[in-house]
Amino acid sequence: METAQQLDKPSLGNNDAAKDKAINERDAMTQDTPYPDQTVGQPFVDNPKMRLRDVEVFYADNQAIHGVSLDIGKNEVVSLIGPSGCGKSTFLRCLNRMNDTIDICRVKGDLHLEGQDLYDPKLDVVELRARVGMVFQKPNPFPKSIYDNVAYGPRIHGLANKKYDLDEIVENSLRKAGLWDEVKDRLHASGTGLSGGQQQRLCIARTIAVSPEVVLMDEPCSALDPIATAKIEELISELSESYTIAIVTHSMQQAARVSHRTAYFHLGRLVEMNDTETVFTKPEHDLTEAYITGRFG
Amino acid sequence: MQTGNLLLLLVVMVAGAYFVGLRRSYALARPLGGIRHLHSLPFYFAMRSAMWCAIPALVVLGLWLAFDDSIIRQQVLAGLPAELQPTDASSYNLTLSKIQNVASGALPANFVEAPIAAAAENLQALRQTSAMALTVVIIVLCMFGGAWAWLKVSPQLRARQQVERVLQTLFMLCATVAILTTVGIVLSVLFESIRFFGKVPVTDFLFGLQWSPQTALRADQVASGGAFGAVPLFMGTMLISAIALLVAVPVGLMSAIYLAEYASNRVRTVAKPALEVLAGVPTVVYGFFAALTVAPFIRGMGESIGLDVASESALAAGLVMGIMIIPFVSSLADDVITAVPQAMRDGSLGLGATKSETIKKVIFPAALPGIMGGILLAASRAIGETMIVVMAAGLAANLTANPLEAVTTITVQIVTLLTGDQEFDSAKTLAAFALGLMLFITTLVMNIFALHIVKKYREQYD
User: What InterPro entries does the entry give (chain B) (predicted)?
Assistant: First the structure.
């Protein structure tokens, strides 16, 4: 997809930088609440792929996310960590509006993908999800053949005119997902017959087959064994060359291995966001330090 | 004592055994330091006592009631003098009812032969003896059972397991009732059908194109010779069922998709039960709806565009039957669609598919086996449906594929063959059993086919 042409306004200018500063100052002033209201570290980057400000999510009357602001840079791997129930998956699902499928869920705030407001009522959600793909916690291949699983997205979006083109997309996606050599002889076998790790790589192949700009991964390795996990992690590093990736994970080692920047969530708030190395070696916030040293989580 | 009173007495004794067992187990537990020192809870000891008291008595009671009448009858008839001994089945019944009527006082004793009157007295006496003996036997059995159970109660007794075993047997017996009933029905239909095929060749029945079951009762009577070709009936059944499915499958499926995927929770909670009410409407109501409202309407419509429509048409019956079976399709389809995991929907939506694309390409294929099952179930229901077709489809056994003509179905013919006064050994009446057998085989094959399809094409989506 040609995203450069879809830029209808400059994504980040001085104006925004000033606003960010103002937000940070406001947060600094309300620090005396028991909750971690202020985000420490460097949540913002220059020229981000996704610019997310004051995101709030409600399930009916329960507020799940409280004023989270952060940026996701181009071709960056951002990992979201935090204890269970801290809202990191909920936050991730806002980024391609998967929360729309939950009736009682409401999202507030400014969420932009390269200047495009994600919650603009005129926005085509279907098109957004083609630009921001998602890989889920549990591998969920369709009960179709491996080929049809990967070809599903391209067929829906009309990305291939001929059978030959489609074959090429399928092969490239499977190659990128590191699955081609394992399945090239049985492309028409059922996708559900693969092992768990292969299934998850198939789901990744299926996601990148529609050439998204951003890939969201919601604990992609939590159902996999260590060897399959290692393969997926390797794959994430390779994919970051061409895609922007946001990954929710419960494994701090995984966050440390695959991501450039790490965001620590606590009780629906963003506590700290920094370079991954900084977060794991010199955490600025006490809560972050407590979590990464294993005092809770 | 009368059986009713005896049962009442039995209940009282069983309740007594229960409480005695309960008290005994508590009494046993007290010196040991509480009921936790017993192997089972006092309830199980009490239940065990009640079972020991009731089960042997009930078994004997059942057997006694099943056989005492025929044994007594045999005794009474054996006592008759040789010239009054019945020779065939009808005179046997006549003699017996005579004796019974005298015994019950419906027939004065001086109206019949002396030996018959004596036999009636004999019958009375035997019956009284039997009832008396039964009462004594039951009471003794109850006492012995209860006492045996009472004696055996000890802290180590595994009463809980014993109660479990008895309950297990009880459940099994209940399951057997349904199976045995089915077997019994099938066998009786089968035997009558075999008698029918003794009169009419199987090939005539299965491949004959002419159905007119009126046969002459006497040699001089003016009537058709009787033709038992079932093909027109099968065609009629299939035609009406096909029309019904053409209505029910699309409407039912789409409403299921709406309810499962699009409707809000509030709509769903109201609409789903409302749709299922359709299945609760008595079929006879559908029947007169079809005959009095839909059929004239179709006839009027047909006439206005210059078509000749019979006043009882396959179309009218099929349409109404289709409406009747909508809930079968929609309810089952709704269940299987809802059972498709949310992960499948998320996966598809996450790739940028719209809701309808997701339904068409992911949910529908995954739910297909269940949907097929629902459709075949609805089809079996349509084939076996009687009331609507009796009222709306007509009796004329036309061999036609034109839905505007009157046709008749297997079920309608069974009804007409068996209603009214019939002798039970003519080919006409026996034909009903053969038709029933065919109907049974058809639906059985469809059900097996449905199971097979469901098994074969089930998409593993976990």
Answer: MetI-like (IPR000515), MetI-like_sf (IPR035906), Phosphate_PstC (IPR011864), PstC_N (IPR022182)
Do B141 and B248 lie in a common domain? no
CB contact B358 to A (< 8 Å): no
CA–CA distance from A69 to each of A24, A44, A78, A246 (Å)? 10, 8, 14, 15
Residue B76 within a domain: yes
Residues A141, B366: C-beta atoms closer than 8 Å: no
| Cβ–Cβ below 8 Å for B346 and A134 | yes
- Same domain for B371 and B239: yes
- Top residue of B344, B351, B359, B458 to mutate, by most chain A CBs within 10 Å, is B351
Coil, strand or helix at A33: coil
Say whether both B259 and B134 belong to one domain.
Answer: no
Instruction: List the domain range (segments joined by +) for residue B247.
Output: 227-458
Q: Chain B residues with CB inside 8 Å of A140's CB? A: 341, 343-344, 346-347
Out of A134, A141, A192, name the one closest to residue B350 (CB). A134
Does the beta-carbon distance from B347 to A98 stay under 8 Å?
Answer: no
CATH number, position B337: 1.10.3720.10
The minimum CA-CA distance between B271 and chain A, rounded to whole Å, is 19
DSSP-assigned letter for residue B216: -
pLDDT in tens, chain A (297 residues): 444 444 444 444 455 555 566 555 544 544 443 455 678 888 888 889 999 999 999 998 889 998 899 999 999 999 999 888 888 899 999 998 988 888 888 999 999 999 889 998 888 888 899 999 999 988 999 988 999 999 999 999 988 889 999 999 999 999 988 899 999 999 999 888 899 889 999 999 999 999 999 999 999 988 888 888 888 898 899 888 889 999 999 888 899 999 999 999 988 889 999 999 999 998 888 888 888 887 765
Looking at the structure, tell me whether residues B153 and B232 fall in a common domain.
Answer: no
Domain boundary among B157, B188, B214: B157
Q: Which residue has the tokens 């297990």?
A: B168
Answer with the one of B109, B126, B157 that is the final residue of a domain: B157
Q: What would the DSSP string read from start to end of A254-286?
A: HHHHH-SEEEEEETTEEEEEEEHHHHHHS-SSH
Q: Among candidates B162, B80, B82, which has minimal Cα distance to B119?
A: B80
Structural domain count of chain B: 2
Residues contacting residue A108 through CB under 8 Å, at least 6 positions apart: A54, A55, A56, A57, A58
In a domain, B23, yes or no: yes
Instruction: Report if residue B67 sits inside a domain.
Output: yes
Residue B180 lies in a domain: no
pTM to 2 decimal places:
0.72
Which residues of chain B lie closer than 8 angstroms to A127, CB-CB?
A: 352
